[in-house]
Amino acid sequence: MTDSKYFTTTKKGEIFELKAELNSDKKEKKKEAVKKVIASMTVGKDVSALFPDVVNCMQTDNLELKKLVYLYLMNYAKSQPDMAIMAVNTFVKDCEDPNPLIRALAVRTMGCIRVDKITEYLCEPLRKCLKDEDPYVRKTAAVCVAKLHDINAQLVEDQGFLDTLKDLISDSNPMVVANAVAALSEIAESHPNSNLLDLNPQTINKLLTALNECTEWGQIFILDCLANYTPRDDRESQSICERVTPRLSHANSAVVLSAVKVLMKFMEMLPKDLDYYGTLLKKLAPPLVTLLSAEPELQYVALRNINLIVQRRPEILKHEMKVFFVKYNDPIYVKLEKLDIMIRLASQANIAQVLAELKEYATEVDVDFVRKAVRAIGRCAIKVEQSAERCVSTLLDLIQTKVNYVVQEAIVVIKDIFRKYPNKYESVIATLCENLDSLDEPEARAAMIWIVGEYAERIDNADELLESFLEGFHDESTQVQLQLLTAIVKLFLKKPTETQELVQQVLSLATQDSDNPDLRDRGYIYWRLLSTDPVAAKEVVLAEKPLISEETDLIEPTLLEELICHIGTLASVYHKPPSAFVEGSRGVQHKRLPGSAGSGESVDSPDPASAAGVTEAPPAVIPSQGDLLGDLLNLDLTPPTATGPPPAPSSGMQLGAMDLLGGGLDSLLGGDIGGSAAMGAGFGAAPAAMPASFNAPVSGGLDDLFDLGGSVGMPMGAYSPPKTVWLPAMKAKGLEISGTFARRAGVIQMEMTLTNKAMSVMTDFAIQFNRNSFGLAPAGPLQVLTPLSPNQSIEVSLPLSTVGPVMKMEPLTNLQVAVKNNIDVFYFSCQYPISMLFVEDGKMERQVFLATWKDIPNDNESQFQIKDCHLNSDAASNKLQGSNVFTIAKRTVEGQDMLYQSTKLTNGIWVLAELRVQAGNPNYTVSLKCRAPEVSQCVFQSYEAMLKN
Amino acid sequence: MIHSLFLVNASGDIFLEKHWKSVVSRSVCDYFFEAQERATEPENVPPVIPTPHHYLISVLRHRIYFVAVIQSEVPPLFVIEFLHRVVDTFQDYFGVCTEAAIKDNVVVVYELLEEMLDNGFPLATESNILKELIKPPTILRTMVNTITGLTNVGEQLPTGQLSVVPWRRTGVKYTNNEAYFDVVEEIDAIIDKSGSTITAEIQGVIDACVKLTGMPDLTLSFMNPRLLDDVSFHPCVRFKRWEAERILSFIPPDGNFRLLSYHVSSQNLVAIPVYVKHNITFREGSSQGRFDLTLGPKQTMGKAVESVLVSSQLPRGVLNANLNPSQGTYTFDPVTKLLSWDVGKINPQKLPSLKGTMSLQAGASKPDENPTINIQFKIQQMAISGLKVNRLDMYGEKYKPFKGIKYMTKAGKFQVRT
């Protein structure tokens, strides 16, 4: 009595027979018939002709029969849309059934019927089910929204289902929350900028609560969603980490890896000296190790991710080398990954063990694996200098085995070792030469030829060896031909007397008898060099070679950062950015690791130079093959660095650089390229690629000149800083805004230069401020009367009032601005000097000053040094008065002038100051006292700016 | 999420397909077949295969490839874990997971797959819940259903689905209340030529068979919990309690389940229960090779080493082997070159050995690879890590259950290099 009976076909007219059975009066017979239909369907037989008959069986109380009919419907509705409508009524009725199982089943099945006509009827039942009293129905309905979105996205948006779905994130039932998150994540994937999952501390808290209680799959969805959040500060980051760490002990490896992703990302924000940071590092190792004892498929995915983790934070697994040792019956894909990680973890401490293992692997059966093992020995030699000698002798042992492919691989890596440690291991050359004849792979032949050419002076019969290769010159691959040409030229430069004939022979072979333009060109260059200036030839051909890097196959840092944010995904398995390969994810947002606590400001800083300033030097990398000089220096043997795919962010940077020079290019290229994150990342990756002078926008410099010109006329006027670029053109579709603040006749003015660097006319400008510390707000509209045509600039002065809404900003004088034009709305932030807020009636009475000074607690006093200021006290006093800092009294004690000054801010805060000036000493001391000590730092900065300007 | 699933047998035929979204043509599997052809061994098929429009993620279990088709970015581990769950469920329902069993129960399989995923999102994967929704086929039930017209689909909402203990069904009743726990440890090791341990680690699990009435709340404590380096729990285990007190406290699912898996890593000293003395040599110029292998017990705490099976992949140049076992039987397959020796129990007084000669192809040079020896064994009543359960208590119910704990150690990937 098994289901296989359903497969036994009858003689003729199977469909006909089934049709009769389906229309039978007997319930039992009907059910059997539907089962037969389903069985045929599973093996790919076309039973769509039975559609009306099967749908007729739908109206039944028998749940199994209903489910079977639903199964059938889902499969064939698409091909019979008109007939499928017949089923709608039953669905609508089932959605009202008292049994929640049937309600859920109906809403689930309806979503799977991918017929446009039906989707319209679906909306009402779905809306009800999303608010159903039974959580089982709600969670099913949540998924149904995602299904519907896949069929008709517009409908879902119009019906407001997305908002309902967002509300479900706050549902009381954890499974409902998890499914809502899953559905939203799937929808968000096709709308990368929709900001559907608006994560804020409240929602995060809800997700973390649901995380503890929902199913393993729900935990994966929630963890993946959490990973997209950027915590506000290190404390929040730590508290999330604390709540996520228990997930590392979950039996489901996908939960573990998703938890690892969240922790790896949020860890970036924790200060390294924190105890918790160390604890977290320790907690990460065991679960990663445990993943490696799972089934090979799981191991493979885990290993690909561990490869990333090891590059980012080698300290996590540095003591776990042994778990990566290869078992002889591991699948080949696991073996190769383990080997790669072993080399990354190799260090002086464990190199002996690693080498012994690698030697063992080199005698295995699998050719690919053996080759990689031999190569790995070479990489160890290059990475750990102390082990180089042992590695070389291991390689020599392997060459003695005379196994053809082992010998060839060994020679390729020995060449790299020669490059890294010149003049150390050349004694082995004789052994290598013995194997000359067995080399049949181009890479190995080329390596051998390189060695012979490079050490021609020590090899007595170098000319004979090279000559032997020359016989079959035209049958060789290009790589070998180029190498042979260079090697013979080197030989000639080293032993000119005996090899003249040889060099002429190779030059003529390369230039006259070859079709390969590279080979010909190189031949001609050598020829001309040799014939015109042999000394120069020597300098070029025998020049010192750049060092080769220690780490090979390193993933480029920005890509690595992005991949760390994508741990556990396909991107992490392929080590490619998600935008590179997942179909349908148009314009994926680049994810970046959050900055660590206290390391500089946000990347939105309007001055790109400051972003470039904080980056570290990138690890030295071998010059790429494109380098002409490198090419002539015979670097065409591919160095061990197999450079990864070109990372997207760095191309973003190049465009950015172009933009700073040429302007407006990005609007041609489709606007915002990569955004500020990519920009910052680009700078981080390769600062050397962008000369420093590009960092300061060219137009900014010009503005400075104009600004200086302007301020000459009013020497005693209020201090106003030079204009800086607030909004670079590449972030605002061609609109560049630079500006400054000034106080004129008691009115604060925001002075801006708007430049149109796009190709089209800009109109309809407007401006708004976010709430800020001192309630700054535009006192009138932004006066840009004429449209701004391309490459035109306009100066605008915007009077500001201080009666706007107040919110404390960090830093205090930060101002967030939104500027709108006919193209889009742009946001930037800038800082105003606090001296703009110093009001004209800031002069305190002497008595009041004294009393206030005493009154303010000493805790509120802060002292600063102003260095290199060459004004005497009177000049300083005058200068400050121009900016509404009033000197109330002056005392002279032992040649030191003490100026007592008062200032009042627009919001009524008084700042009292004592400025000490010693004749002949360029360093001033300022003591500030204020009831609101937060402002002291800003006031001091403006003191310095005012005095030095 | 998961789009479709194809089941492929060893000869490369698709024998079942299931689509959770739109139908994906089975031609997508051609990319899988290509990879299958390229692989030297069935298990060498890469688990993730890209195709122009989809990704194929596959696992190989019971000689069946479970190939999942996905279209968008999905965590691959999520898919692999899910596929494992499918395999486990089939095994649970049909006793074995074979092509024949799946074909015999194709409708149940279809119902199960439909219940396990909705639109590619996992729906019900807990065996307790699934069994409430779809009753496993038994001969008796099939008979009864045919006679009474009942179905094997549950009519009720599975109770556990939304409770705080989704893994346990309510209203469980037994006349004999019993709870058995098996501590099973597998030792993975690589031993080098000279007999010293290169790496050794222990993977342990505690499998439980709990048949208890009502809603029992159990606690299980160890004598030496600090041994465990890394633990992965069944969702029923209260993590806070473990963190604070190193006690396993849980309301168990009904029936068989894996309570805990743990890992004792190479940082700790791992006892190696057997040793191998070997001498496998080939001489240059001779068409004969010597083979000499002796096994002996080591660090077994006095327990017997049983079910010992030695296997080794001999070099390709070996034509035949003429060996003499002191106990048990050996076979040598001249095609695959696989030597396997079924030793049985090791008697410490009379150590088992296998000696003799191997014949090589005449005139061929001596093989350059050294065969690795793979050893399987079992030791009853002992956990090699030394882990010991201290006590098991039950709260929340009045009756007294039968309790039992069994220990066993097995070889996992235990390899000796020569």
From TrEMBL, chain A:
State where the protein is found: Endomembrane system
Q: How does it sit in the membrane?
A: Peripheral membrane protein
Domain Beta-adaptin appendage C-terminal subdomain, by residue range, is: 838-948
Q: One GO molecular-function annotation for this sequence?
A: clathrin binding
Using the record, list the residue span of the signal peptide; answer none if the entry has no such feature: none
This protein's record includes keyword Acetylation? yes
Q: Which Pfam families match?
A: Adaptin_N, Alpha_adaptinC2, B2-adapt-app_C
Q: Which GO terms describe its cellular component?
A: clathrin adaptor complex; cytoplasmic vesicle; endomembrane system
Domain annotation Clathrin adaptor alpha/beta/gamma-adaptin appendage Ig-like subdomain: ranges: 719-829
What segment(s) does the record annotate as region Disordered?
584-620
Q: Which GO terms describe its biological process?
A: intracellular protein transport; vesicle-mediated transport
Keywords of the record, alphabetical order, are: Acetylation, Membrane, Protein transport, Transport
Q: Which PANTHER family match?
A: ADAPTOR COMPLEX SUBUNIT BETA FAMILY MEMBER
The entry assigns this protein to a family as follows:
Belongs to the adaptor complexes large subunit family.
Provide the protein name: AP complex subunit beta
TrEMBL record, chain B:
Q: Which SUPFAM superfamilies match?
A: Second domain of Mu2 adaptin subunit (ap50) of ap2 adaptor, SNARE-like
GO CC annotations, alphabetized: clathrin adaptor complex; cytoplasmic vesicle membrane; Golgi apparatus
Q: A GO biological process this protein is involved in?
A: intracellular protein transport
The residue ranges of the MHD domain are 176-417
**Keyword tags:** Cytoplasmic vesicle, Golgi apparatus, Membrane, Protein transport, Transport
Q: Which InterPro entries match?
A: Adaptor_comp_med_subunit, AP2_Mu_C_sf, AP_mu_sigma_su, Clathrin_mu, Clathrin_mu_CS, Longin-like_dom_sf, MHD
Where it sits in the cell: the answer is: Cytoplasmic vesicle membrane; Golgi apparatus
What topology does the record note for this protein and the membrane? Peripheral membrane protein
Concerning its family, UniProt says:
Belongs to the adaptor complexes medium subunit family.
Q: What is this protein called?
A: AP-3 complex subunit mu-2
Organism of origin: Xyrichtys novacula
